[in-house]
Amino acid sequence: MSNVVRLHSHKPTNHLLSLAETAQILGISSDSARGLRKRGNFPPATRVGRNLRWTRENIDAWIAIKTEVTP
């Protein structure tokens, strides 16, 4: 048995992600993601029709900006 957790998806990198998928990547609930988005503290989204969608590239860039470096 292995304790390795897979973080990479089998989906192509240009796949547009739903709020639920984005929340899962960030390790938070969909409700928390909605709250963060409404407060302006969430990765930038693209509107597709009436829906918001996220790219993995934007999520990763947002994480990099928000990551604190501690000595």
Q: What's the arrangement of secondary structure elements?
A:
Elements (H helix, E strand, L loop, with lengths): L18 H8 L3 H9 L7 E3 L2 E3 L2 H11 L5
Helix pairs in contact: 1-2
Key features?
single chain; 71 residues; mainly alpha; two-stranded antiparallel ribbon; 2 strands; 8% strand
Give structural notes.
The protein has 71 residues and is mostly helical. It has three helices and two strands, in the order H-H-E-E-H. The protein has helices at 19-26, 30-38, 56-66; strands at 46-48, 51-53. Strands 1-2 form a two-stranded antiparallel ribbon. Strand 1 and strand 2 form a beta hairpin. The chain is globular. The mean pLDDT is 87.
Our estimate of the beta-strand percent is 5-15%
Work out the helicity level: 25-40%
| Distance separating the two termini | 35 Å
Largest sheet: 2 strands, antiparallel
Based on helices, strands and strand pairing, what is the structural class?
A: mainly alpha
Q: Could you say which overall geometry the principal axes of the C-alpha atoms support?
A: globular
Show unreliable segments.
none
